[in-house]
Amino acid sequence: MKKFWISNLMKQLVPTLIIDLLLWLGFIKLESKLLLTLAILGILFACFSIWFFRNPKRNVPDLPNSLISPADGKIVAIKKEKDNFFFEGREVTRISIFLNVFNVHINRIPIDGEIVYENYNHGKFINAFSEKASLDNEQNMIGIKTKHGNILVKQIAGLIARRIISVKGLGDEVKQGQIYGMIKFGSRTDILIEEDINIKVNIGDKVKGGETIIGDFYE
């Protein structure tokens, strides 16, 4: 997964550095204050990109009967609803995590299992904090078959975030805490659970991907 992190950082950083180099060359030749300002802003954006694509080490708990957070952020919704995708209209519990631009944007697998469903839904780019984002926004979904039943994890684009990355697909065996993707620049991650679960978080709680326990499945 180190290659995944470096690859995405370079995709963002290299074009920025090339443009910034051209701006500096233009400033040296023309002595334009505008080009100097843009070049300085380019350096600041490059520094922000390096910080944004950070991938801090996480101490993933060994808890096969628990669901851990798939993302850093803030719990903004815990509610019952019907899912017309993976769960074919059945009622599920949805837990939504909002990621602001300052959060780590790496996504992690919440529990061991096998990916048995995937769907990329092209949609809108409403503010990810909005309730409508869970249904209307562009999103990538993976359904995971676990020993506790099926769960669905959604990577949801936001008003700024318009680039969803997932490196796992149908048939892949996945492990709790494993990195499987990221969403660039502000977004939302939802978990949908059909089985009964003892939820350990409340609306407003801050969570860490790969560490915070979202809930425990009943034995």
UniProtKB/TrEMBL annotation:
Entry's Gene Ontology cellular component terms: plasma membrane
Annotated pathway: Phospholipid metabolism; phosphatidylethanolamine biosynthesis; phosphatidylethanolamine from CDP-diacylglycerol: step 2/2
Co-factor: note: Binds 1 pyruvoyl group covalently per subunit.
GO annotation terms (biological process): phosphatidylethanolamine biosynthetic process
Membrane topology classification: Peripheral membrane protein
Localization, UniProt: Cell membrane
Taxonomy, superkingdom: Bacteria
Modified residues (Pyruvic acid (Ser)): 187
Site (Cleavage (non-hydrolytic)): 186-187
Pfam families: PS_Dcarbxylase
Catalysed reactions, semicolon-separated: a 1,2-diacyl-sn-glycero-3-phospho-L-serine + H(+) = a 1,2-diacyl-sn-glycero-3-phosphoethanolamine + CO2
Annotated family: Belongs to the phosphatidylserine decarboxylase family. PSD-A subfamily.
NCBIfam families named among the record's database cross-references: PRK05305.1-2 (NF003678), PRK05305.2-5 (NF003685)
Quaternary context: Heterodimer of a large membrane-associated beta subunit and a small pyruvoyl-containing alpha subunit.
Name the record gives this protein: Phosphatidylserine decarboxylase proenzyme
